[in-house]
Write a structure and sequence with these properties.
- By secondary structure, this protein is of the alpha/beta class.
- The chain contains 8 helices and 8 strands, in the order ββααβαβαβαβββααα.
- The strands form 2 sheets. It has a 4-stranded antiparallel β-sheet, with no helix packed on it. A 4-stranded parallel β-sheet has the order 2-3-4-5.
- Helix content is 34%, strand content 15%.
- It is globular and about 70 Å long.
Length: 198
Amino acid sequence: MEPFVTLRSTAVVLPLENVDTDQIIPARFLKTTDRLGLGNNLFADWRYDGAGAPKREFVLNRPEAKSAKLLVAGRNFGCGSSREHAPWALLGFGFRAVVSSEFADIFRNNALGNGLLPVALPAAVVERIGAEIAIDPTSVFTIDLESRSFALPGGERFEFPVDPFARHCMLQGVDQLGYLAAKEPEIAAYEITRAGAY
């Protein structure tokens, strides 16, 4: 997993509420346990027409979306069924973070466990971000995971919550299993001391 420390990026806005995991990555693409290629099917039913051609009006098909690593979404993003494929598809497209005023709990946990940062900010701030992008699609925003802050282009900062253990893992670029594997020498040393106690 790639470490997440600081992200400076443009953003795209998907101003829809209650976007569920089946809209993020439709169920017909869940036959794989491999992450590769899932980014091509992100929001597939919205991105492509019946013939498989990109819909020009959809935000992810616009030129400015190609380099954006930040998605700004509506309230209750990631609701619906639990599937790791949803953060995999977002990461596969190139996003490293999603900003919303509210995330579904299971999606938030799946995202954090896979290196996608869910940034929960007040609805009024999310609206300001969207307005900034509407005026200037090249606006660059900064996320600092160490300080848990999100900065607007003018420098104004907003703090966001994140689970301390998940934050530690993302800063180090490890998942939960990787964290435990790194502790193997300490675990082995502890087991030796315990074995001698019996």
